[in-house]
Each structure stands twice: as structure tokens, then as C-alpha cells.
Amino acid sequence: MQPLGIQFGNMVGKAALTGVNSSVGGGGFAPAMGTGVLLARTANPFQFQPGQNLFGMVTGRNEDGSFNLRFGNTTMQANSGSELNVGQPLNVTVSNQQQNGTVVLNVATTPFSSLDNQAVGQTLAKMNVPLTEGNLSLANSMLEHGLPLDKATFQSTQKALAQLPPAPNTTVANARIGATCFLQANQLPLTSQNITSLSNFIATNPQLGQQLFNLQNELRQLKIDSNNKLSSRSLEILEKVPGLLGELTAEPSGGVKGSGSSKGRGMSKALFDSAKQAGIETGLTWVGGDDDPWEMVALFRQLHEMMDENPTLYGKLPSTLKGMEENLQAARLLNQGKPDSSLGFYYMQIPLRFYKGESAEVWIRYKWKEGVGRVVDLNDTRLEFSVKTEYLGDLYFTADISEGVIDVNVGVDDEEILAFVEAYLPVLEDRLNESGWITGNFVAQLRSSLDIEREDFISEQDFSSLEGVNVEI
Amino acid sequence: MDELRENNDGQKDEKSVIPGDLYSLMAEIITFAQELNDLKDEQSNFE
């Protein structure tokens, strides 16, 4: 293997990585790499001093199983005995030099907890940047988001953030830094409006934000890996990704009546978008909102068709996109079906906080009226929820609404969780009261005794008696 | 689309198939479930 020029932060050296032993976790905001050891062979292993902290990223996968790693503007190749994910930030500490020309690098457990403030401080000092708490925080966040820590990038990020009023707390400050890094990395305008709307979005939609960051990192890297050999069509599709983000960050501009919590208000718009994508709110726009019909399925399809041209370049991304597309298509087919009876349910899948493994499914009852179609009557309907949580298992909610009065039942899987949910159920009742609902019975019970209406519908008909239909589109 | 809009004439959210209040209700219930989960996590850590 030829020695390759590599740059670690402000340090430049020549090295060839000959062996990698590491365990890895997820990418993006999730823990990037487990504890492991990299064995790097270099012409001059003694240029790296034990204790030095180095930052970089896994940027691609080659057909021979090796990986490209990028540090600054330079890429090098590495072989790994275990799986690495494209887009993972790398944070390593030089352990020692060996006689055979290799350098032992210890990989940090996560790109977040293990960032060494002293090493970041040394880099800032070399850039003649004052070592204030704010500057250190900004530098750390830049590294976490995969941005190079150089003076020009640092100053432009700092200048963009200075447009905004002081952040009320660290959560908002971190979300703003993340938004600024994202916009900058994707060459989007660093306006105060863009930073504010994107940071609000990140703060309230961590799962989607994470996916978008991962997606952006993957797609951005494609341009580098392919040496700008992507077709004009591919480039055109890539250009749509910022547009995708723009849709997701759009603020709700009306149509939602009374919501108890600010978090709930933000989520209402996301739910409306989910309903659009699931084929419920077909072709409709948010009242008073944008008129641009956002077609997520079409975008996913275009992206993975593009990736089929050279699947080895894209890792797990095509299958992820295809899975999401199939889910959306399935939901649309369900929502387009005409029920046998006069009652039916709209169906929605809602991704929640990805890193907590959360998701939700919602069924909304409608009446089928001849000559009219499906009608969801606010005074006579039922909603059923299945919410997957990390510590409480699956929670099943039913909400029956009749003449403005709402009854809520919560089904859980065991007695301990039942007692826990029962204790806090009055909080939900209070919130719905504040939102203008007249509340009736609020009950928690074991799932086995919960009446799931949609299951009654399904069990009414023997599966083998159902007529098969071709649902290909 | 026009048909769907006509269906909802007289409701608070004229253009939406699902009344806006139900989106708010969905958001409240899902948020509540998430907060319960976080609370359980905090309690487990405390214990």
C-alpha cells in the first residue's frame, strides 16, 4: 500500500493504515464507534505523539472491503475486521508507536462524550482563537457534526450565530450550532431565519433530524467518492435534498385548534405531513401553508433508482430508502381501500425518536357515506394508537369521541406498568381539558381486557375467504 | 380533492380530511406516551 497524505485537524502527515480492529455502533448522532484499536502503518510513526487526539470520518466503502477515511481534505484507505458505517465520525487517541512502523490508535467510545477539551483547546490556540467556554463548545459541536476545525469554517459559523439573539438555554444553543453546521456543510444560506427554523426542527424532531444529517452526510460524500463522475440526473436528485429539509422545517401556519403543550403543537404539523404521505390528506395543503406538493415516495424512489446504478457505493442507504418507500405505499393502499361496512379506519405510521426505538401507529375511524365518501366526524369517531416505547413496552391508547366528550383507555402489558400509567393519566386528562375537550372516563388497564375495535373488524372475516386483488401500481 | 374539501364544509379545518383538532389530540397522546417513557427512564436511573 502506498503511503497516503493525511491530515488530522491541523496536523499533516503521511501514513498507510494496514489493519483495523474495532467494534462499531450506529452513525450520525448515534454513538459512532465502539471501543477499539486502529493499527496504522506509517513511514514516520514517531511524528504522532502518544496522547494526541485526532478527528476524522469514515467516508466510503470500497469493493475490496476496505474503507476510505477522511481527515481534513485528505482520504486514506483502511481495512477492517468488523463493520464500519459510512459517515461515522472518528475520534482517536494516539496510544504508542511500534517498532514495525505502525501506530496504535485507540478509538473513542462515542464522538461526543470522549471529545477531549484539552485537545480541542490546543487546536483553537493554534488558530489564535480565544479559549472561551463558548468557543470550545462551538468547536466541539463542529467536530461532532463532521465539519473541519479550521479558522475559516470556525469564523463563518461564529458569524452566522451572532445574527441571532442570545440563546435562552444550552439546548437551544446546541440546536442552533447543529443547524448552522448543517447549513454550512451543505452550502445553504446562513440566514438567521434558516438557522432558527432548522434549529427548532432539530429540537422537536430529533429522529428526523438525525436521519437527515445521516442522509446528507452520505449523499455529500458520494460526490467526493465518485470524483464528480455522477450523472447530471443524479446531481439533480441530490439537489432536491435541501428541498426535502425545507419542507420538514416548515412551521405550521394555522389550522390547529387548541393544543395543551408547545411540543404537541409542533408535532401536529408533523402528523399532518405523515397523513399526507400516508395518502389520507391526498393532495391537500396545510391551511394557509405552502402550496408545494411534497412527494416523499417519489423522491425515495428516484434516490434508490439512482443508487441501483452502483449499489456498492451506498451501503445500507438504498435498502433503508426502499423500506421507507414500501411502508408508505402500503399505508396508502390501506387508506385507499373501501371497507365492506360503513365504518373504516385510516392508518398512519409515525416515526418518533429513532435513538429511543420509538414509533407509533394510529388508526382513525371514518364513516363511509354513499355519494360522499369517507367522513371523519369530530363528534363521533374513535382513534386507536399503538406507541412503541423503550421502557414501557407497547402502549395502546383508544380515544372515543362522542358529542364533544372524549373517553381514553390505555392498555399496557403488565401490572407494574399499569400502576405507573394510572398514576400519571390525570396529567393527560388535564391537558386535554386545557385544550378544550370535555373529558369523560380515563382508564388504564391490561391490554388483554382492552377493546380494540379495528381487531374486531378484521376478525369478522375469515382470511381464506378474502378476495385476492392485484395492488401493483 | 374538491370532493374531499366539500365533505368537510362547515368543519373547523375546511381543507383537511381529518379535523385539525384530531391532529392536536394525536399529538397530545403521543407526546404523553413519550413523556411517560422518559419519566420511567429517569425513575429507573434514580433507583
Largest sheet of chain A, order of strands side by side? 1-2-3-8-7-4-5-6
Order of helices and strands of chain A: EEEEEEEEHHHHHHHHHHHEEEEEEHEH
Radius of gyration from the alpha-carbon trace of chain A, in angstroms: 26 Å
Question: Which structural category fits the helices and strands of chain A?
Answer: alpha+beta
Which overall shape of chain A is indicated by the principal axes computed on the Cα atoms? elongated
* Low-pLDDT residue spans of chain B: 1-14
* Terminal-residue CA separation of chain A: 50 Å
Largest sheet of chain A: 8 strands, antiparallel
Low-confidence stretches of chain A: 1-35, 109-114, 205-212, 241-264, 284-293, 457-464, 466-473
Q: Determine the structural class of chain B based on helices, strands and strand pairing.
A: mainly alpha
CATH architecture descriptor of the domain at 337-465 in chain A? 2-Layer Sandwich
Tally of helical runs of chain B: 2
Beginning-to-end CA distance, first to last residue of chain B:
54 Å
How many E strands of chain A?
15
Describe the 3D structure.
The complex is a heterodimer of chains A (473) and B (47). Chain A is α+β, with helices and mostly antiparallel strands and 473 residues long. Chain A has helices spanning 117-126, 133-144, 151-161, 170-185, 192-204, 206-225, 232-238, 240-248, 262-277, 296-308, 317-336, 415-434, 453-459, and strands at 4-8, 11-24, 33-41, 53-61, 67-71, 74-78, 89-97, 102-107, 343-351, 359-369, 373-375, 380-388, 394-402, 405-412, 438-446. In chain A, helix 5 packs across helix 6 and helix 10 packs antiparallel against helix 11. Chain B has 47 residues and is an all-alpha fold. Helix content of chain B is 70%, strand content 0%. Chains A and B meet through helix 9, strand 10, strand 11, strand 12 and strand 13 of A and helix 1 and helix 2 of B.
